Amino acid sequence: MSKIKIELSEEQYKNLLKLVYLGEWVSQSYNEEPSAAIEEVEQAVYTVSKGTKSENLLELDDKTKRYFPSIDMEEDMLETIDEYDDNVFWDELVDRLAERDLIKAHGEDKVVKMSFEDRIEEEDPIIEQYEEEFSKNGIDKLNLETE
Q1: Alpha carbons 13 and 53: distance in angstroms, whole number
Q2: pTM strictly above 0.85
Q3: Are 99 and 130 in contact (CB under 8 A)?
Q4: Residue 74: what pLDDT?
């Protein structure tokens, strides 16, 4: 296998460490079996940290000889992940509710057959309504109807 070399500034390398951390988090968080290929790339990037200004972002496990994010890196990245998760939650909630309402109003068959433009035209006002509501009240007025 041929190898690829890239040259990065210290700041670029620090950002690469963060990207690798976030990429690993997203791709592996819900996998019961971690991907060996992902871990191999992660370790290849982390191993280069020795002697850089970003060395403090990683810790070497003496037993396994593998690098892991330091507590400082974890805390920094968890802020980013929490912000992302919060945004995804609201986007998904709004999108799923709008889709549900659109199907209730027009029927699933008609919605599936709508052109992209027609669907956007029908769905946008619903999305805006939910975004405004959740922006003002969060989930305070969200209730589950029981039969």
Answers
A1: 9
A2: no
A3: no
A4: 95
**How do the domains of the chain map onto residue ranges?**
10-69, 75-137
Question: Residue 70: its pLDDT value, please?
Answer: 96
Q: What is the DSSP letter of 57?
A: G
**Per-residue pLDDT band at 56 (split at 50, 70, 90):** very high
Q: d(Cα 12, Cα 57) in Å, to the nearest integer? A: 14
Q: What is the dihedral of CA 27, 31, 35, 39, to 10 degrees?
A: 60
Contact 105/126 with Cβ under 8 angstroms?
no
Please provide the distance, in angstroms rounded to a whole number, between the alpha carbons at the two ends of the chain.
Answer: 61
Rounded Cα distance between 24 and 43, Å, is 11
Say how far apart CA 58 and CA 60 lie, in whole Å.
7
pLDDT class of 34 with cuts at 50, 70, 90: confident
